[in-house]
Write a structure and sequence with these properties.
With about 290 residues, the chain is of the alpha/beta class. It folds into 2 domains: about 150 residues; about 90 residues, no CATH class. Helix content is about 30%, strand content about 10%. It has 9 helices and 8 strands. A 6-stranded mixed β-sheet has the order 3-2-1-4-8-7. Strand 5 and strand 6 form a beta hairpin. It is globular and about 55 Å long.
């Protein structure tokens, strides 16, 4: 018997402002058919997505959000080594971000990265690299990685540190704004593996859309899809019906559509829920990316 009936993928955005063209939601159903976009008259806001997840989610939905649900912890034994107020686990981290950013509108996280102590750990715009950004001592200089991001790299992806806020591929801003959303869910929707996988009901997981692209036989350098013809080829590669559409598609929408179909194909795979590199401590502090092995 299948655990989930619906599969919702969310391409998220950390940009400033109320409504974001970079937010895209796509849904696929267990009974088949192509994935479809969930669209509104106006672009999605982060608050819109929060309301959907908290109040309007279909029963037994596997939700995948393309962001980091936590920050690196295992490498240094703390999120913010050397800071006396560093939180002990992911949920405390979410609460800290929410507290510091309480006056930031639209679930933004500007106050967090501009905090006089916490800014030391981030790489920000204007060539502002905090003196603690390279605390892991790695020679690559890309910032600290979680254990799951090392697993992504071993699979052929090119992950970025959630402490990096610079560049088109950075995910730090979206991750921090996403953690505000996760805090505001208040336990209404379990977040795996911070929370154990419940026996029934909906659950939210972190996804990395490049993993779906790799399984659709696209290389990390070709993970972005910008036409429906390319998208349907990728969907066919993972066993999903195509959209049947033609022409251009923005990469936020194509990422969400492919990921929704991918979640339907792999969401019942027990091995995905028991990655070999994930310990109880890592699950509680850093979390994990669904599908990273």
């Amino acid at each position: 018997m299948n655990r989930f009936s619906h599969f919702l993928a969310i391409d998220w955005s950390g940009a400033r402002g109320e409504r974001q063209k970079g937010i895209a939601l796509a849904l696929s159903d267990l009974d088949g058919g192509p994935p479809r976009l969930l669209q509104r008259d106006k672009p999605w806001s982060r608050e819109d997505v929060l309301t959907l997840l908290r109040d309007d989610l279909p029963t037994n939905t596997l939700v995948g959000m393309d962001l980091g649900i936590s920050l690196p912890f295992a490498d240094c034994g703390a999120f913010f080594p050397g800071w006396e107020d560093t939180p002990p686990h992911a949920r405390a981290l979410w609460a800290l971000i929410e507290d510091i950013c309480a006056d930031d509108p639209h679930l933004e996280a500007t106050s967090f990265v501009d905090h006089p102590q916490l800014s030391r750990y981030f790489r920000r715009h204007g060539a502002r690299e905090g003196d603690r950004f390279r605390d892991d001592g790695a020679e690559h200089g890309r910032g600290r990685f979680r254990v799951t991001e090392h697993a992504q790299a071993a699979m052929g992806c090119k992950p970025y540190s959630n402490f990096n806020l610079v560049g088109a591929a950075q995910v730090g801003k979206s991750s921090l704004t996403g953690m505000r959303l996760l805090h505001r869910l208040g336990g209404a929707l379990p977040v795996w593996p911070i929370d154990p996988l419940p026996r029934e009901g909906s659950v939210l997981v972190e996804i990395y859309t490049s993993l779906a692209a790799l399984e659709a036989q696209r290389s990390s350098g070709r993970s972005k899809i910008r036409s429906y013809e390319e998208l349907d080829t990728a969907l066919a590669a993972i066993g999903s019906p195509g959209t049947g559409l033609a022409g251009a598609v923005d990469d936020h929408s194509s990422d969400a559509l492919l990921a929704a179909a991918w979640l339907r194909e792999v969401g019942e795979d027990a091995a995905r829920w028991s990655p070999r590199g994930m310990t109880k401590q890592i699950a509680r502090t850093e979390g994990w990316t669904f599908g990273a092995r």
